[in-house]
Write a structure and sequence with these properties.
2 copies of one chain form a homodimer. By secondary structure, the first copy, chain A, is of the alpha/beta class. Chain A folds into 5 domains: about 160 residues, 3-Layer(aba) Sandwich (Molybdenum Cofactor Biosythetic Enzyme, Chain A), CATH 3.40.980.10; about 60 residues, Molybdopterin biosynthesis moea protein, domain 2 (Alpha-Beta Complex), CATH 3.90.105; about 70 residues, Molybdopterin biosynthesis moeA protein, domain 3, CATH 2.170.190.11; about 80 residues, Beta-clip; about 110 residues, Periplasmic binding protein-like II (D-Maltodextrin-Binding Protein, domain 2). In chain A, about 25% of the residues lie in helices and about 30% in strands. Chain A contains 16 helices and 36 strands. In chain A, the strands form 10 sheets. In chain A, strands 30-29-31-36-32-35-33-34 form an 8-stranded mixed beta sheet, sandwiched between helices. In chain A, strand 8 and strand 9 form a beta hairpin. The longest helix of chain A has 20 residues. Chain A is extended and about 115 Å long. The first copy, chain A, starts with 13 loop residues before the first helix and ends in a 5-residue tail after the last helix. At the A-B interface, strand 11, helix 3, strand 15, helix 4 and helix 7 of A face strand 11, helix 2, strand 15, helix 3 and helix 6 of B.
């Protein structure tokens, strides 16, 4: 069966793959110039240096309201020996911006002019030559270079161009990118309407993401209709299209599996594969090829892989074409909240959330899967773990490439611990009120939240830890683990915990006792979560051995994940909060009311953010 | 005559003016929501929180190519006790992404499966539950909040939205801005064609600059045709338009002069002036008003004033409307290259060029005039001088708000001194070669360049200082002023200096002797410039007293400025280089050939930039 699998003939490290690709094509001379109006040029790249056609100002003009005179006529004027001028002859009224009358070279402000009659005025101080006059070319001299080639035209630049009499400029043509999604399982989100997705069908989102990234980089894109997994069809489209586009991106099928046809398609189209496989994670199954001297890139289908492959390999080509140098993302140093393991030989892109807790910037690693698109939409930054490292340790700060401005990140309120839907409402309220603050929450369970406070890794923690001995919530564990950290407990909500059960309760589950029945599968929460503590307490109270419950050892990390497991049929029941059951329309057997508190270190209680 | 002038009734400090304006209108509730596709939503602001419609993945799917099994069936498998499966019954072939067959909860990678026959396979290790399975909701759980309101949709976000089955979202409508240029002297650059600008006519550029800034902030704009200076007409347009736009900007006429009609027009339109005059420079003549509860802003006509007024007063309103908080520009500390004087009581926005010279970031102030648009297009940053300071001293670092990324600024090569057109060619070549480097040059004359090197304010200086005693160039002054700074002299060009004379030489100027004739006006260069040294040398050689030359005391700072003075008729002749005369089509009487060198401190000679 292993004969069904192709293999990567030779994987390349990122830098080598990039160099092979960029050097193979003459990207810097690919784009011709086109002429556009100055207004249309904003955001575009100049194809040639631009020189001023006119000087600005184009004439000597009054810079003040007043009278224009010959400076020489004013010499010696004083309050003892004022000098008089005849309007229309030795002096002329001028308003700001008006041209200086022939022969006049100074303006005296109207406030310093005494009117003696309709025809005669008097001054009591001399003027120096060119006083209050904007002279020709003071700003721009005709023929001077305004901007060098490859300059990006910004809003301000249009002012200089127009003032210099330049109203059309030559800019680099926009790079044209063809995006071809492949895969028979793909569905358009817009085709879903109200019906749900059949199992095995996947919503095609990569073409939209990559298209937006192309536009963000100054390119234009055409989305080809999705192609089925068929080398012949893909080859035909690539062969026809590559000449009309500056880049062709084929999404999906770029790996070396039995159903990956991009490599075969490129070869059938007469192309040459330059690189197949890059030692990066996510993004390994990237393919770089030349089809009749046109660049074609096989983009992996997992969303995070697609983004990394684009940014690391396609974006530099788009920059080179346009003559701009992409600025590396700014980096900061941050302390990882836990060890980041990594595979030797692979350069790994770990997405992290950041927060400034006290004086320290902490980096909380997000899920690693290449399929987890929220790991990049929720990320504040990316940590690159080099190929020659097996991981990063929490005791050493790491460089984080920022995806958002640092000032914005520093206004993240970092919440770690148990999740309640109230936190989402809070996050939305913070945005509605335009506070500039964001809520950055990680749902790892109550006890892990308390530990994060102890270790200085968060601003606050959500917790609902029952003390079985006295029925109190949170106080016992706070006293046990946070003896050295003064904190305040703020009750956010009282909520109902209960058994979430498949809609209609087909298994007729009436309580914890029924969980031990044959054919009933339970789905559990992880150790240290408030819900797990509650379960174990309820089981102990009833004398039910955990080992009798099928699925006790299967752990989920959030209420919603438990609810989904029940909804999807993976389990028959799980313990969780009523709002999670309500959200997914599950049946709910109430067990108890519990207190959900926010634990806030005293040092943060009085900060403006709180 | 002073009765012709209106006055600012009460000028306000910036913060107060801004608060008066922002608080007067309910900006945050001004924009309704509109529904757009996810692709169209990129760059837009969510009007509501968005929740997932579907889970992602929406089904339990294989995360590897291999066989799907029940994990429980594999327990105990080892190389000594392998377990066999029957394909199609206890095991099913799956490819990555395919749904898990009913009842199966683990995938074994194809590499770890031995094929015994077409029907039977064998494994030698157990699988744990959900091994190599992407479970429902692993990425996104249906109903969960994906993004809070007021979140700006980026390219990545489209991936999460589509994966969650969301293909249309409610975003804030784009703010609509009407831009009305006023002033009878205004001309459209596109109307110029090949004809030049008549004296007194000004190219209207502000509406293009402000329109581009509006678009950059997510708004749309309509440019009204230019209006003459007539309060009645302006009032009619404002009155009709203000209800259909979220903001109206009236450019020009916002000051308190005799021909400034914006205030009058707003009052005739039934509006209320909230603020007239803001204590900022540039930008003082800004006017903030409400016309029937609609915001109208009078924008000053000078280009830099218009930009500052927009960014400080209009931009915050656009942000508030859209529910986003504008990030303050990042700031750095830099040492001013000279004293920055400033008017007490006015908050001044000084544009500066920045460069990293050695370990120090230096800030070189650009011209201060509000009319000098190149002072902002050439700027790397802005220094705000508070109203209660009279200026900033070079011995104290100042905070500079960055207009470009710091990494880019740190690649500026700072050139101070005499100018040669070769420097522009060099600047363009640096961009053509995509070196990432920029040339940042200040033209202050040769000697000032040498002083800048002595004070550590530049990377290199252009110089052509003649030693009249031995006819050598630069070496004498370098020895005199740079005794402590090891430098290298690199000859960039040998060029011709001569008298630039009005085309056709109507004054029949044949040499320096003719400069003393009645009716002949000379235009000089500033002391310390190489050209001034040359002039004084040539005059001395001929025994011509400087005092006999009319215009000897009128100084310009560049060759091109001298050429412009001659071209515009302000002077009959000036001394300068042939290329300047050629650029403006002047006659040229050669005087001498001179050496133009680059002076480079040894410490920079071997840097990659050089």
């Amino acid at each position: 069966m292993s004969s069904k699998r192709n293999v990567y003939l030779s994987m390349k490290p990122l830098a080598e793959a990039r160099a092979l690709f960029l050097d193979h094509f003459d990207f810097s001379h690919r784009l011709a110039a086109e002429e556009v109006s100055v207004a249309e040029a904003v955001g575009r790249i100049l194809a040639e240096p631009v020189h001023a056609r006119l000087s600005a100002p184009s004439y000597h003009g009054a810079a003040m309201d007043g009278i224009a005179v010959r400076a020489a006529d004013t010499y010696g004027a004083s309050d003892l020996e004022p000098v008089e001028f005849t309007l229309g002859k030795s002096a002329v009224h001028v308003n700001t911006g008006e041209p200086m009358p022939e022969g006049m070279n100074a303006v005296i402000m109207i406030e310093q002019v005494q009117a003696l009659s309709d025809e005669t005025v008097r001054i009591e101080a001399p003027a120096f030559p060119w006083q209050h006059v904007r002279r020709v070319g003071e700003d721009i001299v005709a023929t001077e270079m305004l901007f060098p080639r490859h300059h990006r035209v910004g809003p301000y630049c249009t002012g200089a161009l127009l003032a210099a009499g330049v109203h059309r400029v030559a800019v680099k043509r926009r790079p044209r990118v063809l995006i071809i999604p492949t895969g028979g399982e793909m569905v358009q989100a817009s085709d879903l309407d109200e019906s749900d997705l059949a199992p095995g069908r996947i919503i095609e989102s990569n073409s939209t993401v990559l298209g937006a990234l192309v536009e963000q980089m100054g390119g234009v894109f055409v989305r080809h209709e999705g192609l089925r997994d068929d080398a012949e069809t893909i080859a035909a489209v690539i062969g026809e299209a590559s000449g009309n586009h500056d880049l062709v991106l084929v999404i999906g099928g770029s790996s070396a599996g039995a159903r990956d046809f991009t490599k075969m398609a490129i070869e059938r189209a007469g192309g040459e594969v330059l690189v197949h496989g890059v030692t990066i994670m996510p993004g390994k199954p990237t393919l770089l090829a030349a089809v009749r001297d046109h660049p074609v890139v096989g983009i992996p289908g997992y969303p995070v892989s697609a983004i990394i492959a684009f940014e690391e390999l396609v974006a530099p080509a788009l920059e080179l074409m346009q003559g701009v140098r992409g600025e590396a993302r700014p980096t900061v140093l941050a302390a990882p909240t836990r060890k980041i393991a990594s595979k030797l030989g692979m350069e790994e892109f770990v997405r992290v959330r950041l927060g400034k807790v006290g004086e320290r910037l902490v980096a909380n690693p997000l899920p690693r899967g290449a399929g987890t698109v929220t790991s990049i939409t929720r990320a504040d930054g990316i940590v690159r773990v080099p190929a020659d490292l097996e991981g990063l340790h929490p005791d050493r700060e790491v460089a984080v490439e920022l995806l958002r401005p640092l000032a914005e990140i520093e206004r993240n309120i970092v919440v770690v611990g148990s999740h309640d839907l109230c936190l989402d409402v809070l996050a939305d309220l913070l945005k509605e009120e335009q506070t500039g603050l964001s809520l950055s929450s990680s749902h790892v369970g109550s006890l892990a939240g308390i530990m994060a406070i102890r270790n200085g890794l968060c601003h606050l923690a959500g917790s609902h830890l029952l003390d079985p001995d006295d029925g109190s919530y949170n106080t016992t564990d706070v006293a046990r683990y946070l003896a050295d950290v003064p904190v305040r407990l703020i009750n956010l909500v009282t909520r109902e915990q209960g058994l979430m059960i498949v809609k209609g309760n087909p298994g007729a589950i009436g309580g914890f006792e029924d969980l031990t029945r044959d054919g009933v599968t339970f789905i559990n929460r992880q150790g240290g979560s408030g819900t797990r503590v509650l379960l174990d307490y309820e089981l102990a109270k009833r004398g039910i051995p955990a080992g009798d419950i099928s699925g006790y050892e299967t752990e989920e990390f959030t209420h919603m994940a438990v609810a989904v497991a029940v909804m999807s049929g993976a389990a028959d029941a799980g313990l969780g909060i009523r709002s999670a059951a309500r959200a997914l329309d599950l049946d709910f057997l109430p067990v108890t009311s519990e207190r959900y508190d926010l634990i806030i270190p005293e040092e943060f209680v009085d900060t403006p953010a709180m």
